[in-house]
Design a protein that fits this description.
Oligomer: single chain
Radius of gyration: 15 Å
Helix content: 40-55%
Structural class: mainly alpha
Largest sheet: 3 strands, antiparallel
Number of strands: 3
Number of helices: 6
Strand order of the largest sheet: 1-2-3
Amino acid sequence: MDGHVGRLIRVGQWLNGDGFADYEHAFVHVGGGELVEAQPGGAELRPLSVYDRRSALWSSGRYDLTVAQRAAIVAAARGYVGVGYSVADYFALAAHRFRLPVGPLIKNYVASSRHMICSQLVDQCYLDAGVHLFSDGRWPGYVTPADLAGLLRS
């Protein structure tokens, strides 16, 4: 991501233990030249072309998904359009990382409010389709763009 938001995410990922990762954003390609992504104003359906000339990692071919799973991931992503985005998501990540006693309270708030950051949205769409990207059982709200990039680079 460009600008101040991208830099803040990059610093946040560093504080979270991910180092200065090269990826600060994630989205779900839903076909037809469109994607669903979490944005500060809420999740949006946007043209894939907004990322022309930008570096991206793609999961295509990385996972052996059935046609039904792919359809379920797309349906889930489309179903999250309009879901809000909140700074509480970042507080939940920080509280988890630093093992703060308020962590579970913030996690429960974020989970009940359905707020999602971009990487959480991606992980949640896969989970909704029955696909577990992470074998450690982490809550999707604890997934960062760097975590997703790490999966695709391994």
